[in-house]
Amino acid sequence: MDCIDIALAKGRLEDQALELFAELGLTFPDYSKDSRRLIFTNAEHKVRLVLVKSADVPIYVERGAADIGIVGKDMLLESGAQVYELVDLGFGLCKIVVAGKTDAYQRKPKPVVATKYPRIAQAYFREKGQPIETITLHGSVELAPLVGLADCIVDIVETGTTLKEHGLQPMEVITTLSAQLIANRASFKTKCARLYGLIDQIQGVVDGRLADR
Amino acid sequence: MVVERLSMLVPNGVKDLSQQDLENKQQMLGEIARLFKESGYREVQTPIFEYYDLFKEIKGTLEMDRMIKVIDTDGKVLVLRPDATIPIARMAASQGADPQELRRFSYVTSIFRMADDPHNVQSREFTQAGVELFGDGGTGADVEVVALAISCLQKVGVSEFTFDLGQAKFFKALLAETSLTSEEQADLQRLIEHKNFADLKRLVDTLAIPNEVRQALRAIPKLYGPPEMVLKKARSVILNAEMETSIAELADVYAALTEAGCGGHLTIDLGLMGNLKYYTGVLFQGYVMGYGKPIVLGGRYDGLGKYFGCDIKATGFAIYVDDLIAAVKNQERLTRNGLH
């Protein structure tokens, strides 16, 4: 029988995803946060966990390097990957917002938007009918308006503390997000029996949590 | 200073094939072409240049932005063959034959599209081999082409693969119960195809549609898996005669394919719709174990002939040959590593 490969986004979602697996009795004994290893195996269930950067999860799954993946909806929207989005896992809740020192960017003919999510930013402003210029940054996006690099930012916000600390305010909410269980379309068709079982179990845990709330 | 010599480089999205690679490809194509011929399909060829208008008028079949365009000497816009089926359907319509006459066409050709995937080394020019069967609207024709597609994979040595059957009519007949805008319909289709259960529920809850349609829409992405089970479940969400017929057709096709010994390779997914402006009946996709993309796409497209003034029933499929080669290599690698 073949192995199921799971791509998991490192960082924000890692702990909660592992908690979810543990609830299913799916543990990875050789896993530890400090380990430099990136692949962990559960030999009993024939499941392999691959830890990758969150932005890379959609591409691992789309290309079939992993059968399923757990990743934030932000990365999914940004990548535009063709995958099945099977379960809204309900954790890792956050928002994608437009934030600035003021709302002055709304009156500029073509404001400069700094973001990790150029695709989401472009799509949002296109729908609004406002042309923008995007600058793609890979971290500390909130810095950009402060040093005059951009008029506003598009970024994910969990609590809003980081924005506040930098004197920025969320002006518009683009969408709310949570962690998603995604699947490769071919794996879904060719490894059906095993994958369906795992997906049903995950859905069961998520439904159970919702009912408890 | 490094001077970039473009003459030394191959552009993005296309590649050279070495002697060995080309010989392997030709051998595979030879086997497939032989099988087409033995099954009564005669090879045809359509031009590499076509008028942009040909593809533009057939709305929603191909993305306009992804066609590779050139300007003709008279200022008209031409495209490099972005699809094999549409030109062949035109050929079938313009031959002046009786639309009821059975005609079997095959092709092996290069297809050109703008690279939309930076991770794919061969996404701007790729080879498709396929067949089109004109003049038969019955399930017998559907069975014939699916069985032929399955034989092709077996012939080139693919051992573990799955063909997923869908039915475009099922979703269309369900939408007939509503008066949704084409935008809302497209959103529904996208969410169903991505099996995005959470967003689908949210959308369905906001639409002004009867409750049983709401239930059925939410059920569609769950209607996948072993054929008997799916057919049974699908019958429980049927709301009108057309939906009933569509499921009966699919059941017929499945039964005939099972009788032909293909049953073990089949699953059904009613959430599989492909391009609904194009497909009008039973459609299918072929997947090879361990390879992330579909290798075969096909289905019934009875509406296409009308664009060329001739109402012809038609079905067919295309094999993505470069993907098939990669999938076979991948399969060999997996077997060698003992992962299977």
Task: Explain this structure.
The complex is a heterodimer of chains A (213) and B (340). By secondary structure, chain A is of the alpha/beta class. Chain A folds into 2 domains: 4-92 and 178-212, Periplasmic binding protein-like II (D-Maltodextrin-Binding Protein, domain 2, 3-Layer(aba) Sandwich), CATH 3.40.190.10; 94-177, Periplasmic binding protein-like II (D-Maltodextrin-Binding Protein, domain 2, 3-Layer(aba) Sandwich), CATH 3.40.190.10. Chain A is built from 8 helices and 11 strands. In chain A, the strands form 2 sheets. In chain A, strands 2-3-1-4-11-5 form a 6-stranded mixed sheet. Chain A has a 5-stranded mixed sheet with strand order 8-7-9-6-10. In chain A, a hairpin with a 4-residue loop joins strand 2 (39-42) and strand 3 (47-52). Chain A is elongated. The model of chain A has no long low-confidence stretch (mean pLDDT 92). Chain B has 340 residues and is α+β, with helices and mostly antiparallel strands. Chain B has one domain (17-336): BirA Bifunctional Protein, domain 2, CATH 3.30.930. In chain B, 40% of the residues lie in helices and 19% in strands. Chain B has 11 helices and 12 strands. Chain B has helices at residues 19-38, 52-57, 85-94, 139-155, 168-175, 182-193, 197-206, 211-219, 227-235, 241-259, 321-336; strands at 42-43, 49-51, 69-71, 77-80, 103-112, 125-134, 161-167, 224-225, 266-269, 282-288, 296-300, 314-320. Chain B has a 9-stranded mixed sheet with strand order 1-5-6-12-11-10-7-9-8, sandwiched between helices. In chain B, helix 4 (139-155) crosses helix 10. The longest helix of chain B is centred in the N-terminal third of the chain and has 20 residues, at 19-38. The termini of chain B are far apart. The interface between A and B is medium-sized, with 25 and 25 residues.
